[in-house]
């Protein structure tokens, strides 16, 4: 079908790209669904794509990192680039095999800063057990002073029997997460805005592929239906994507969602809902109901899943909705945000 010259986005309302178009919420999905998908065609609604090749299946993912500031408690743009890409492969059920790294350097960036970032990337790749095999470098004129942007691509191998997709969530499935949420977003924002909190807020940035592979082995690949890392837009937005893809409803019991005291306190001060704050070391896992307890035990036995919890379940209707239920039985709809809570947090 020929593609027309007119842009499908409502140009009168959004004649230019705004920061909200990159926030993981409603406007970003509009941009993807109505512009990129129109031009490129429908793709997997996932963190990566799986391709059949001779000898097996590969997973491929790509990501760009523009976090500001470059360094934050618990990591920097380099560790974020490696771990974020590894986690996107993990969300495909893949074992990471190789990464690429492209660097866009702003004129005036101190070479010592670049060296620190590159060393951090090398260390993170070693921990994740994946080599950085090729890359590219470009230099642009001085602009906003951030100095550095990184693009990565990750390749991984998917074992036989593994079939992970947002559309595979089924009524009765249980929703798990491997630990406390919201740490990354509030850690980055606290440094950016010069905020001081009593607790030491640190990003949860970590590679999760080994934990995911241990889970798949323990409960069997067919029992794990969905894996997603809730980065931009947080847990709520990611669950909205899953509920829409699977034509189901996800019910979250909000008191069961783990949030560290420091992150919760910071969210309360800043007026943020932790369910919408970005994470960089968390995985949402949707499993068959008879595998939920085994999955939880497996996660809790791993260092990156010691605070894991079952936080909800999948139900049949209302389709495309996420419902947050509190201790008193009250409910609220957890919808995608239209604006940008925390710009440039990954």
Chart the SSEs and their pairings.
Layout: H1 26-40, E1 49-53, E2 56-65, E3 71-72, E4 75-76, H2 77-90, E5 94-106, H3 111-128, E6 132-140, E7 148-158, E8 174-177, H4 183-192, H5 209-219, E9 224-228, H6 234-246, E10 249-253, H7 261-270, E11 284-287, H8 292-300, E12 309-315, E13 321-325, E14 331-333
Parallel strand pairs: 5-6, 10-13
Antiparallel strand pairs: 1-2, 2-7, 3-4, 5-7, 8-11, 8-12, 9-11, 10-12, 13-14
Structure description:
The protein has helices at 26-40, 77-90, 111-128, 183-192, 209-219, 234-246, 261-270, 292-300, and strands at residues 49-53, 56-65, 71-72, 75-76, 94-106, 132-140, 148-158, 174-177, 224-228, 249-253, 284-287, 309-315, 321-325, 331-333. The chain is of the alpha+beta class. The chain folds into three domains: 1-42, no CATH class; 48-158, 60s Ribosomal Protein L30, Chain: A, CATH 3.30.1330.10; 166-333, PurM-like C-terminal domain (Phosphoribosyl-aminoimidazole Synthetase, Chain A, domain 2). A seven-stranded mixed beta sheet has the order 9-11-8-12-10-13-14. The protein has a five-stranded mixed beta sheet with strand order 1-2-7-5-6. Helix 2 runs parallel beside helix 3 and helix 2 runs parallel beside helix 5. The radius of gyration is 20 Å and the shape is globular. The chain starts with 25 loop residues before the first helix and ends in a 13-residue tail after the last strand. The mean pLDDT is 92.
